[in-house]
Amino acid sequence: MLRLDALMMDTIRSLERKDFKGVDLTKFVLAILVVAGHTHPFKEITNPIFVHLWERLLLLVVPYFFIAAGFFLFPKVYSSPDKTSRLQTLWLYLKRIISLYIYWTIIFLPLTLWYFSHDNLIIEKDVVLFIRGTFFFGENFYSWPLWFLLSMIYSLTFISLLMFINLRVRTIFYISILIFAVAMIFNYLVAGESRNEFLLMLGKIIKYLFLTGRLFTGMFYLMIGGLIAMNQIRISKLAMVLMVLIALTFQFVEIEIISPFLFSLLPITLFCLTVDLKLEGIKNGLFLRKCSTVMYFTHMIIFFLYTLIFRTIPYFGWDAFLVSVAVPMILTPIIIRNEERFPFLKQLFG
């Protein structure tokens, strides 16, 4: 155990010295994909092969964000052999994520109220929908990106409980695999493709409570990122090739539950391929890092305002996509220059 802790300490010191420009660039590109997924610039393309590949490409995004978060978080958590210190580090991070979720839920509240004012439902029903959306879906009207934060909150809370009862990091990882499998089962049930009446009813209940199983996927990817950072998982180039081949095979030969489960190999491989990229030509990693965050959290507000003023809601297309990408890129340098004067900006965008 002492040797393991020493290895973790060495890993943390090496992480502190490194500049992960590959991760910064990948998150920036993936943030643009998030915008594309929400604004649908390719809505006119109906070719089934393109649609299938595009949908799978979009599924890489949030898992990569989870892995990156775990990669940077867990070496800090396990930097101390003392359980109390580890839990304190984790709780401080969890507190920050909870605050972030509250802030952004409030920021999106005008959009939510706008939607409620047009949905022709009674106030009591809207209140129920807001509570369900905030605590169980991780989204309300157009606040779709926020489910990432709610999944982080649930995942880190559960991880802290497992750490509190002295479970080792690998045991927590094995539990996360089981929870991830449950999430895949939830997704299958929600799709309503079973012929069993009980399973169909169960799927409707899960859909009403959680929409999908996505909230339960975060823990697995967070743990993967943490184990990679602490050298508890080493994936060779040959293993990465095999992982990609297996994952792609089961995306074209689709098997319920199994294919979505094995898809997880793709974002894991993508992270392993990009985490050590040197990219010496990139001089401003800070812009990429900050812009990916600004774009992720603000693009739906920009999208809403653009369509409200210049189009009609709902509207999707290339113009909305370009505006929703361009405005965050313009805002990012302004935020960087002013976040010391206005600490709230740093709280919102890290």
Automatic annotation (TrEMBL):
Keywords attached to this entry: Membrane, Transmembrane, Transmembrane helix
GO molecular function: acyltransferase activity, transferring groups other than amino-acyl groups
Transmembrane portions of the chain: 20-37, 57-78, 98-116, 144-165, 172-190, 205-228, 235-253, 291-309, 315-336
Domain Acyltransferase: 21-335
Pfam family, one: Acyl_transf_3
InterPro entries listed in its UniProt record: Acyl_transf_3_dom
Superkingdom field: Bacteria
Transcription regulation found in the keyword field: no
Protein name per Swiss-Prot or TrEMBL: Acyltransferase 3 domain-containing protein
